[in-house]
Amino acid sequence: MISRRLVLMIALMGAFLSGCSHSSVPVEYSGIRYPSVAFVVTCRLSHELPDDPIVHPGKPGASHRHSFFGNMTTSARSTQESMAGAPTTCSDPLDTGAYWAPSPAGRTLRAYYDRGSVDQQTVTAPPVGTKLISGNPSASTPVGIDTVAFRCGVISDGPDRGEWLPEAPSACGGGALPIVRFTFAQCAGRCTDESPRFARLRLVMDWAGQSPMGIAPHADFWNTWNQARLDELTAVCIRGERTTNLAIKQCGLPGAS
Predict the structure, then answer these.
(1) Fewer beta carbons within 10 Å, N or C terminal of the chain?
(2) pTM score
């Protein structure tokens, strides 16, 4: 006869498997590897300023106008210390990171973090203070869909669905809108084969119109997240590490609403 202890163990294992499958966390169990996932944060437009804290730090009004999402205090005078723990427009209150793009921009963006093109077990969170730019503001031709891409759709479609194009569509039908996807590098500075790779960030937002004259489409990211939270989400949702806290609830397949 099967002992009560064995029955309980089987039940617990079944519950564990069911939970992992539901959350799509990449866990290896009995030789089966569950799918890789990402985590997604939605951020509303916070404010607009003629500032760029990465390109023109400490120089208010020195830039073309930008639309800022996430951290509500972002300006040319921002510092890592001033932005830590500030209010945010993001769905995760601990995402106090700063995201921005030339105005006019959409009212909402979705930030997708995933493993990108590298082994998920080697991926780390972007380090504290990481500053990244996707695209080239002075580019005279499209920079390539692996960096800046466009299509008709809605931002909840995610970064992978549909055919992406190097330039914005002139018109969309069936209730769809032009949307843009910005993809950021997975390392800082000059990347080499030995460079540590951190989670790939892709921003998807409505494309509200042309960038200011002479300014090519681009977006910026400054990692002023609560770093413990960002590390936790990267470990649980991308590397598939088990945890006793609730970070797992924010994991989701790219494109999931």
Answers:
(1) N
(2) 0.82
